[in-house]
Request: fold
Amino acid sequence: MSKLVTAKAHTNIALVKYWGKKDAHLMLPQNGSISLTLDHFYTETSVQFQPELTADQVYFDNQLIAPAKAARMTTFLDLIRQRSGQPNFATVRTTNHVPTSAGLASSASGFAALAAAGSRAAGLDLTPIELSRLARRGSGSATRSIFGGFAEWHAGHDDASSYAEPLQDPVDWDIQMIAVVLKATKKPISSTAGMARVVATSPYYPAWVQTANHDLDEMRQAILNKDLTSVGEIAETNAMRMHALNLSAKPAFNYFTADTLTAIKAVQDLRASGVNCYYTLDAGPNVKIICAGQDTPVIMTALQRYFAAAQLIVTKPGPGISITEH
Ligand code: 2P0
Reply:
């Protein structure tokens, strides 16, 4: 029986987005991305390899899940077995500390935690950058969740060169995100399939890659300067260009609901009234508002005209991965 190892990874929100692969097997992105890891949402996963098992056993919130639903995780465990020489199947127990079905990037924290717990349980002792490369094979956004604060995922050109690194951690200036958790309808298309369709069919894709690379340079500088206004402006523009790709795909799709547009409008109105706040959106209806802590109360009050207090979650920069051997 292997060591029992638990890892805790926080989710991250991209400020310059990843939206398209150039190699689906190695999970190499078309462009680099920059994110902020959040304190409030995280996944805890424990892994133990056991000789008596005849298949991997994956539990989500203490419920054993069907093999078909666990396929992406067991394929990832195969990769760890291949690298480590660990011959056994594993028991995996994972708990997502995110509001139920909020769709707040649980694959980022999920695969980061699985990479860390799984590799250590299998006897590998990986550096943070090696862990980031491994997490990438599970889900692109997981590449960045190894690190706390601001992180940058370098697109790279092969397995060795595509990894994230910390840009700024800890974050010693005032930046927060308010997650506006909106009721999800059935997701129109998964992230993986959505971005593949965009790369294959959007005539605007080359312009996206070009502008994303420019956004990366500007965002790096804005973070170094601790400049909330620039971080917010670049992030908002970048997010809307990503969603414009979805609208320009064939067939077109989008992740917005009516409430998404209400939240966007509320941010625009707040900004028009002098409050320094910006929005970003990922592959779901939720809106994340980038702001300073001092403005949080006025933003919360304004949003509560439209949304219940329980739908508004204030988050701060969060830490990188932590690993415990039992
Ligand atoms: C990101 N998103 O940079 C972008 C922005 C959502 C919008 O990465 O196919 O679950 O597993 O690599 O990482 C969500 O997609 O997709 C995502 P795969 P992933 O955070």
